[in-house]
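User: Predict the complex.
Assistant: Input components as received:
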Amino acid sequence: MLASLLFGDYRQKVLARLLLHPEQSYHVREIARLTGTSAGTLHKELARLAQAGVLTREAIGNQVRYGANRRCPIYPELAGILRKTAGLADVLTEALSTLRERLTLAVVFGSVARGDEGPGSDVDVLLVGDIGFAEVVRAFHEAQSSIGREINPVVLSSAEFHDKLKCGDTFLAAILGGKKIFLIGNEHEFGKPAGNPAPGSA
Amino acid sequence: MSLENLLAIQRLVRHEAGHAVVLKLIAAAERNLADARVTSISAENRFDAAYKAILQCAMAALAARGYRTSTSQPGHHQTAIQTLPLTLAVDSGTVIVLDALRKQRNLTDYSGDGISDALLAECIAQAESLLRHARATLGGP
């Protein structure tokens, strides 16, 4: 909600991707693919941000690459805002990087996913895989201070997740029917036929 | 923050309870942990019993040092868990997990959502480990 109040949809997505990965530069098509936007509309937006000094613009041959301009006077503040808003999914995905192979699904649900979070809202995250609650809590611990919110993980084994889906568990049904931000896995995980557990769940 | 500082801001109160009270709390934690292993009751109640055992270990350790938490202050469970590094030299990684269990208990109490297998297993494992440590440090039945 905060991010869309401050920036338009495209600007939000572009800034979150570029400012939270300041070590990288990207060409326009790459940015379009990563942010789910169209390259045509992005050209103008990127040029304006570069002109204002928020992004760097570099022409290599016939390719133009954009990246975060760390020398922009408001770079730290802007990156901080994006980390806490539009870039939240990136921060959470990064926090889960060491556990990734053991997770079949990680999805943000609740107020943050809906975009109607308040100042004190937690980030609710459902995680499915062969993983312990303590490991997840430790993995998310530092991310909590970087996003400025507490993270509330719900950890289910693959078998438990599929059992609950099969018997129409109300908690999972609410997540399934509500808005979600996928960190690992996709909508498909919710629709797997019963008795066909996710790979690696045995 | 030291125990003395927590006393100064009234998170803790002085409580010269004596060793009998310490042993009584350890024994209560033992009973709760045993209840948490009963598989014929709901995961919620098993989780609650294991969580209670954790809290009673923290209370026993505080009592051994002549304190208890101030129950008139909000967040006294949180205070009890946060004193564990001071009373039983519990490491910060464990305190992070114990505090997360405390939060889960609050959330599930009010939402009516169930307790997952992973959450219950963690709560019991943490209670077992803390009780073992508390018994070794404080003495026990």
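Chain B has one domain: 3-138.
Let me know if you want any component modeled separately.
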